[in-house]
Amino acid sequence: MKKLVVWVLSLAVVVMGAGLAGSALKSAEAAAITWKLQTTWPAGIFLHESAVGLAKRIGELSGGRLKIEVTSAGTIVPAFEVLDAVHRGTLQAGHGWSAYWVGKSPAANLFASVAGGPFGMDNVDFAGWLYYGGGLDLYKQLFADILKLKVVIHPTDIIASEPLGWFKKPMKSTADLKGKKFRATGVTAEIYKEFGMSVITLPGGEIVSAIDKGVLDGAEWMDPTMDKELGLMDVAKFYHAPGMHRHTGTLEFLVNKDAWDKLPDDLKAIVDIACRENLLRSWLDLTSRNVKDLEVLKTKHGVTVVETPKEVLIEILKAWDKVAERYVAKDPFFAKVYKSQKDWAAKMVPYRKTFYAPYEVAADYYWPAKK
What is the pTM of this model? Predict the structure, then answer.
Protein backbone atom coordinates (compact mmCIF):
# COMPACT_ATOMS: atom_id res chain seq x y z
CA MET A 1 0.00 0.00 0.00
CA LYS A 2 2.83 2.36 0.92
CA LYS A 3 4.54 1.64 -2.41
CA LEU A 4 1.29 2.37 -4.25
CA VAL A 5 0.93 5.75 -2.52
CA VAL A 6 4.53 6.64 -3.41
CA TRP A 7 3.96 5.59 -7.00
CA VAL A 8 0.76 7.66 -7.26
CA LEU A 9 2.50 10.70 -5.75
CA SER A 10 5.43 10.28 -8.15
CA LEU A 11 3.08 10.02 -11.10
CA ALA A 12 1.32 13.16 -9.95
CA VAL A 13 4.63 15.01 -9.80
CA VAL A 14 5.49 13.83 -13.30
CA VAL A 15 2.10 14.90 -14.66
CA MET A 16 2.32 18.26 -12.90
CA GLY A 17 5.85 18.72 -14.24
CA ALA A 18 4.76 17.91 -17.75
CA GLY A 19 1.88 20.31 -17.40
CA LEU A 20 4.15 23.07 -16.17
CA ALA A 21 6.63 22.39 -18.97
CA GLY A 22 3.83 22.45 -21.52
CA SER A 23 2.53 25.69 -20.08
CA ALA A 24 6.02 27.18 -20.22
CA LEU A 25 6.38 26.08 -23.85
CA LYS A 26 3.01 27.56 -24.75
CA SER A 27 3.93 30.74 -22.91
CA ALA A 28 7.22 30.97 -24.82
CA GLU A 29 5.40 30.44 -28.10
CA ALA A 30 2.87 33.08 -27.18
CA ALA A 31 5.70 35.47 -26.32
CA ALA A 32 7.49 34.91 -29.64
CA ILE A 33 7.77 38.04 -31.77
CA THR A 34 6.71 37.70 -35.40
CA TRP A 35 7.73 40.14 -38.13
CA LYS A 36 6.55 40.43 -41.70
CA LEU A 37 9.41 40.97 -44.14
CA GLN A 38 9.12 41.66 -47.85
CA THR A 39 12.09 41.64 -50.16
CA THR A 40 12.56 43.78 -53.25
CA TRP A 41 13.36 40.61 -55.20
CA PRO A 42 11.32 38.12 -57.23
CA ALA A 43 10.77 34.76 -55.59
CA GLY A 44 13.16 32.00 -56.63
CA ILE A 45 16.29 34.08 -57.12
CA PHE A 46 19.36 33.98 -54.89
CA LEU A 47 18.80 37.41 -53.31
CA HIS A 48 15.36 36.40 -52.10
CA GLU A 49 16.72 33.04 -50.93
CA SER A 50 19.39 34.88 -48.98
CA ALA A 51 16.73 36.88 -47.13
CA VAL A 52 14.90 33.64 -46.35
CA GLY A 53 18.16 32.15 -45.05
CA LEU A 54 18.83 35.22 -42.92
CA ALA A 55 15.35 35.03 -41.39
CA LYS A 56 15.85 31.34 -40.67
CA ARG A 57 19.20 32.02 -39.03
CA ILE A 58 17.72 34.73 -36.81
CA GLY A 59 15.03 32.25 -35.78
CA GLU A 60 17.64 29.61 -34.95
CA LEU A 61 19.89 31.93 -32.96
CA SER A 62 16.93 33.34 -31.04
CA GLY A 63 15.54 29.92 -30.19
CA GLY A 64 12.35 30.80 -32.03
CA ARG A 65 11.76 33.97 -30.03
CA LEU A 66 11.99 36.13 -33.17
CA LYS A 67 10.22 34.72 -36.20
CA ILE A 68 10.39 36.48 -39.56
CA GLU A 69 7.89 35.63 -42.28
CA VAL A 70 9.44 36.40 -45.67
CA THR A 71 7.53 37.27 -48.83
CA SER A 72 8.79 38.34 -52.26
CA ALA A 73 8.46 41.60 -54.17
CA GLY A 74 4.90 42.71 -54.84
CA THR A 75 3.15 40.41 -52.40
CA ILE A 76 2.33 43.23 -49.97
CA VAL A 77 3.72 46.37 -51.66
CA PRO A 78 5.55 47.01 -54.96
CA ALA A 79 9.30 46.37 -54.90
CA PHE A 80 10.32 50.02 -54.83
CA GLU A 81 7.90 50.81 -51.97
CA VAL A 82 9.45 48.44 -49.41
CA LEU A 83 11.38 51.20 -47.62
CA ASP A 84 8.29 53.35 -47.12
CA ALA A 85 6.30 50.32 -45.97
CA VAL A 86 8.93 49.55 -43.32
CA HIS A 87 8.88 53.20 -42.22
CA ARG A 88 5.08 53.15 -41.85
CA GLY A 89 5.08 49.81 -40.04
CA THR A 90 3.11 48.04 -42.77
CA LEU A 91 6.16 45.77 -42.79
CA GLN A 92 8.32 45.20 -39.74
CA ALA A 93 11.29 44.45 -41.98
CA GLY A 94 12.51 44.59 -45.56
CA HIS A 95 15.43 43.29 -47.61
CA GLY A 96 16.70 45.46 -50.43
CA TRP A 97 19.40 47.56 -51.98
CA SER A 98 19.97 51.18 -50.99
CA ALA A 99 20.45 52.40 -54.58
CA TYR A 100 16.71 51.88 -55.00
CA TRP A 101 16.18 54.90 -52.74
CA VAL A 102 18.23 57.46 -54.70
CA GLY A 103 15.02 59.36 -55.39
CA LYS A 104 15.06 60.24 -51.70
CA SER A 105 18.81 60.93 -51.48
CA PRO A 106 21.60 60.36 -54.03
CA ALA A 107 23.88 59.40 -51.13
CA ALA A 108 21.89 56.16 -50.84
CA ASN A 109 23.76 54.87 -53.88
CA LEU A 110 27.11 55.20 -52.09
CA PHE A 111 26.10 52.45 -49.65
CA ALA A 112 24.90 50.11 -52.40
CA SER A 113 27.71 50.10 -54.93
CA VAL A 114 29.38 52.61 -57.19
CA ALA A 115 31.82 52.58 -60.06
CA GLY A 116 35.40 51.68 -59.33
CA GLY A 117 34.87 50.62 -55.75
CA PRO A 118 34.87 53.66 -55.36
CA PHE A 119 38.45 54.93 -55.62
CA GLY A 120 39.87 51.49 -56.42
CA MET A 121 38.40 49.62 -53.43
CA ASP A 122 37.24 46.02 -53.61
CA ASN A 123 34.69 44.35 -51.35
CA VAL A 124 37.21 43.75 -48.57
CA ASP A 125 38.08 47.45 -48.53
CA PHE A 126 34.43 48.48 -48.77
CA ALA A 127 33.36 46.25 -45.87
CA GLY A 128 36.30 47.60 -43.90
CA TRP A 129 35.06 51.14 -44.54
CA LEU A 130 31.59 50.20 -43.31
CA TYR A 131 32.71 48.61 -40.04
CA TYR A 132 36.02 50.31 -39.28
CA GLY A 133 36.06 53.50 -41.36
CA GLY A 134 32.86 55.17 -40.16
CA GLY A 135 30.69 53.99 -43.05
CA LEU A 136 28.04 52.28 -40.93
CA ASP A 137 27.53 55.39 -38.78
CA LEU A 138 26.96 57.42 -41.96
CA TYR A 139 24.61 54.72 -43.26
CA LYS A 140 22.51 55.07 -40.10
CA GLN A 141 22.58 58.87 -40.39
CA LEU A 142 21.19 58.62 -43.90
CA PHE A 143 18.00 56.95 -42.74
CA ALA A 144 17.55 58.60 -39.34
CA ASP A 145 18.75 62.17 -39.91
CA ILE A 146 18.69 62.85 -43.66
CA LEU A 147 15.62 60.89 -44.74
CA LYS A 148 13.87 61.19 -41.35
CA LEU A 149 12.64 57.61 -41.58
CA LYS A 150 11.76 55.27 -38.73
CA VAL A 151 14.11 52.64 -40.11
CA VAL A 152 17.08 50.82 -38.56
CA ILE A 153 19.65 49.58 -41.05
CA HIS A 154 21.91 46.51 -41.08
CA PRO A 155 24.24 45.69 -44.02
CA THR A 156 23.75 42.15 -45.25
CA ASP A 157 24.90 40.27 -48.37
CA ILE A 158 28.11 41.38 -50.06
CA ILE A 159 27.38 41.51 -53.76
CA ALA A 160 29.74 40.29 -56.44
CA SER A 161 31.39 42.69 -58.88
CA GLU A 162 28.84 42.93 -61.66
CA PRO A 163 29.42 42.35 -65.38
CA LEU A 164 28.63 45.10 -67.88
CA GLY A 165 25.48 43.30 -68.96
CA TRP A 166 23.52 41.56 -71.70
CA PHE A 167 23.02 42.62 -75.32
CA LYS A 168 21.61 41.07 -78.46
CA LYS A 169 24.77 42.05 -80.34
CA PRO A 170 28.40 42.40 -79.18
CA MET A 171 29.36 45.86 -77.94
CA LYS A 172 32.97 46.47 -79.01
CA SER A 173 33.42 50.11 -78.02
CA THR A 174 31.89 53.03 -76.17
CA ALA A 175 30.52 54.22 -79.51
CA ASP A 176 28.53 50.98 -79.85
CA LEU A 177 26.75 51.76 -76.58
CA LYS A 178 25.49 55.18 -77.66
CA GLY A 179 21.77 55.32 -78.24
CA LYS A 180 21.12 51.85 -76.81
CA LYS A 181 18.04 51.45 -74.60
CA PHE A 182 19.53 49.96 -71.45
CA ARG A 183 18.17 48.95 -68.06
CA ALA A 184 20.08 50.39 -65.09
CA THR A 185 19.17 51.70 -61.65
CA GLY A 186 20.34 54.23 -59.10
CA VAL A 187 23.08 56.72 -59.84
CA THR A 188 24.53 54.04 -62.16
CA ALA A 189 21.85 55.06 -64.65
CA GLU A 190 23.42 58.50 -64.86
CA ILE A 191 26.80 57.00 -65.74
CA TYR A 192 25.36 55.44 -68.85
CA LYS A 193 23.51 58.60 -69.75
CA GLU A 194 26.96 60.20 -69.95
CA PHE A 195 27.63 57.72 -72.78
CA GLY A 196 24.52 58.90 -74.60
CA MET A 197 22.59 55.73 -73.72
CA SER A 198 18.85 55.78 -73.14
CA VAL A 199 18.44 54.43 -69.63
CA ILE A 200 15.25 52.84 -68.31
CA THR A 201 14.83 51.81 -64.67
CA LEU A 202 12.78 48.65 -64.12
CA PRO A 203 12.42 46.13 -61.26
CA GLY A 204 14.19 42.82 -61.87
CA GLY A 205 11.00 40.94 -62.64
CA GLU A 206 10.24 43.14 -65.67
CA ILE A 207 13.62 43.06 -67.44
CA VAL A 208 13.28 39.88 -69.52
CA SER A 209 9.89 40.87 -70.91
CA ALA A 210 11.18 44.36 -71.77
CA ILE A 211 14.11 42.95 -73.77
CA ASP A 212 11.88 40.41 -75.47
CA LYS A 213 9.45 43.14 -76.56
CA GLY A 214 12.21 45.47 -77.75
CA VAL A 215 11.61 48.03 -75.02
CA LEU A 216 15.27 47.43 -74.06
CA ASP A 217 18.32 46.68 -76.21
CA GLY A 218 20.21 45.38 -73.20
CA ALA A 219 20.34 45.25 -69.43
CA GLU A 220 22.44 44.76 -66.38
CA TRP A 221 21.11 42.81 -63.42
CA MET A 222 23.57 41.10 -61.08
CA ASP A 223 25.87 38.18 -61.93
CA PRO A 224 25.82 34.77 -63.68
CA THR A 225 23.69 33.04 -61.03
CA MET A 226 21.01 35.68 -60.68
CA ASP A 227 21.07 36.57 -64.37
CA LYS A 228 20.40 32.91 -65.14
CA GLU A 229 17.65 32.73 -62.54
CA LEU A 230 16.02 35.78 -64.09
CA GLY A 231 16.18 34.16 -67.56
CA LEU A 232 18.21 36.82 -69.35
CA MET A 233 19.88 34.18 -71.53
CA ASP A 234 16.50 33.53 -73.16
CA VAL A 235 16.33 37.02 -74.67
CA ALA A 236 20.00 37.96 -75.19
CA LYS A 237 23.06 35.83 -75.97
CA PHE A 238 26.03 38.19 -75.59
CA TYR A 239 27.20 38.54 -71.98
CA HIS A 240 29.72 41.36 -71.51
CA ALA A 241 32.21 41.15 -68.63
CA PRO A 242 33.84 42.48 -66.58
CA GLY A 243 31.97 45.58 -65.51
CA MET A 244 33.06 48.63 -63.58
CA HIS A 245 29.73 50.26 -62.70
CA ARG A 246 29.18 48.17 -59.55
CA HIS A 247 32.47 46.94 -58.28
CA THR A 248 31.58 46.56 -54.59
CA GLY A 249 28.65 46.91 -52.25
CA THR A 250 26.13 45.34 -49.92
CA LEU A 251 22.43 44.73 -49.63
CA GLU A 252 20.47 45.83 -46.59
CA PHE A 253 18.16 44.51 -43.86
CA LEU A 254 15.64 47.23 -43.01
CA VAL A 255 13.77 47.20 -39.68
CA ASN A 256 10.95 49.44 -38.53
CA LYS A 257 12.31 51.46 -35.58
CA ASP A 258 9.26 50.90 -33.37
CA ALA A 259 9.56 47.14 -33.90
CA TRP A 260 13.31 47.36 -33.26
CA ASP A 261 12.92 49.33 -30.05
CA LYS A 262 10.57 46.67 -28.65
CA LEU A 263 13.24 43.97 -28.96
CA PRO A 264 15.24 43.04 -25.85
CA ASP A 265 18.96 43.71 -26.10
CA ASP A 266 19.89 40.07 -26.70
CA LEU A 267 17.58 39.81 -29.73
CA LYS A 268 19.00 43.05 -31.13
CA ALA A 269 22.46 41.52 -30.79
CA ILE A 270 21.29 38.34 -32.52
CA VAL A 271 19.94 40.30 -35.50
CA ASP A 272 23.23 42.20 -35.79
CA ILE A 273 25.30 39.01 -35.55
CA ALA A 274 23.14 37.18 -38.09
CA CYS A 275 23.44 40.05 -40.59
CA ARG A 276 27.23 40.20 -40.22
CA GLU A 277 27.43 36.43 -40.63
CA ASN A 278 25.25 36.68 -43.72
CA LEU A 279 27.73 39.07 -45.34
CA LEU A 280 30.33 36.31 -45.50
CA ARG A 281 27.99 33.38 -46.05
CA SER A 282 26.15 34.91 -48.98
CA TRP A 283 29.36 36.22 -50.58
CA LEU A 284 31.06 32.82 -50.56
CA ASP A 285 27.91 30.99 -51.57
CA LEU A 286 27.15 33.33 -54.46
CA THR A 287 30.73 33.32 -55.76
CA SER A 288 30.80 29.52 -55.91
CA ARG A 289 27.42 29.45 -57.65
CA ASN A 290 28.55 32.03 -60.20
CA VAL A 291 31.42 29.80 -61.33
CA LYS A 292 29.07 26.88 -61.96
CA ASP A 293 26.27 28.91 -63.51
CA LEU A 294 28.55 30.70 -65.96
CA GLU A 295 29.45 27.30 -67.40
CA VAL A 296 25.76 26.43 -67.61
CA LEU A 297 25.05 29.66 -69.47
CA LYS A 298 27.80 28.92 -72.00
CA THR A 299 27.30 25.19 -72.51
CA LYS A 300 23.52 24.76 -72.18
CA HIS A 301 22.19 28.12 -73.32
CA GLY A 302 24.63 29.13 -76.03
CA VAL A 303 25.72 32.32 -74.31
CA THR A 304 28.88 34.02 -75.61
CA VAL A 305 30.98 35.85 -73.03
CA VAL A 306 32.37 39.06 -74.54
CA GLU A 307 35.33 40.72 -72.86
CA THR A 308 34.46 44.33 -72.10
CA PRO A 309 37.02 46.59 -73.78
CA LYS A 310 39.28 48.41 -71.34
CA GLU A 311 38.25 51.62 -73.07
CA VAL A 312 34.68 51.10 -71.83
CA LEU A 313 35.82 50.38 -68.26
CA ILE A 314 37.87 53.58 -68.14
CA GLU A 315 35.04 55.60 -69.66
CA ILE A 316 32.75 54.29 -66.90
CA LEU A 317 35.19 55.62 -64.30
CA LYS A 318 35.44 58.98 -66.04
CA ALA A 319 31.66 59.23 -66.31
CA TRP A 320 31.24 58.31 -62.64
CA ASP A 321 33.72 61.01 -61.60
CA LYS A 322 31.61 63.60 -63.44
CA VAL A 323 28.35 62.35 -61.94
CA ALA A 324 29.81 62.16 -58.44
CA GLU A 325 31.28 65.67 -58.59
CA ARG A 326 27.89 67.10 -59.55
CA TYR A 327 26.37 65.54 -56.44
CA VAL A 328 29.29 66.60 -54.26
CA ALA A 329 28.68 70.19 -55.35
CA LYS A 330 24.99 70.22 -54.53
CA ASP A 331 24.44 67.66 -51.74
CA PRO A 332 26.42 68.13 -48.48
CA PHE A 333 25.65 64.66 -47.15
CA PHE A 334 26.68 63.00 -50.40
CA ALA A 335 29.92 65.00 -50.22
CA LYS A 336 30.46 63.88 -46.61
CA VAL A 337 30.03 60.18 -47.42
CA TYR A 338 32.07 60.41 -50.61
CA LYS A 339 34.95 62.08 -48.76
CA SER A 340 34.81 59.39 -46.06
CA GLN A 341 35.12 56.69 -48.73
CA LYS A 342 37.99 58.50 -50.44
CA ASP A 343 39.83 58.98 -47.12
CA TRP A 344 39.51 55.26 -46.36
CA ALA A 345 40.55 54.25 -49.88
CA ALA A 346 43.58 56.57 -49.65
CA LYS A 347 44.85 54.36 -46.83
CA MET A 348 43.71 50.93 -47.95
CA VAL A 349 44.26 50.90 -51.72
CA PRO A 350 47.94 51.97 -51.63
CA TYR A 351 48.56 49.46 -48.83
CA ARG A 352 46.96 46.67 -50.84
CA LYS A 353 48.91 47.66 -53.97
CA THR A 354 52.15 47.51 -51.99
CA PHE A 355 51.63 44.27 -50.08
CA TYR A 356 49.34 42.29 -52.41
CA ALA A 357 50.65 41.18 -55.77
CA PRO A 358 48.24 42.01 -58.61
CA TYR A 359 45.71 39.20 -59.01
CA GLU A 360 46.72 38.53 -62.59
CA VAL A 361 50.39 37.79 -61.76
CA ALA A 362 49.74 34.38 -60.22
CA ALA A 363 46.49 33.93 -62.13
CA ASP A 364 48.17 34.33 -65.52
CA TYR A 365 51.10 32.12 -64.43
CA TYR A 366 48.79 29.20 -63.58
CA TRP A 367 45.91 29.99 -65.92
CA PRO A 368 47.30 31.73 -69.02
CA ALA A 369 44.82 32.99 -71.56
CA LYS A 370 43.95 30.44 -74.22
CA LYS A 371 45.29 31.31 -77.64
Answer: 0.87
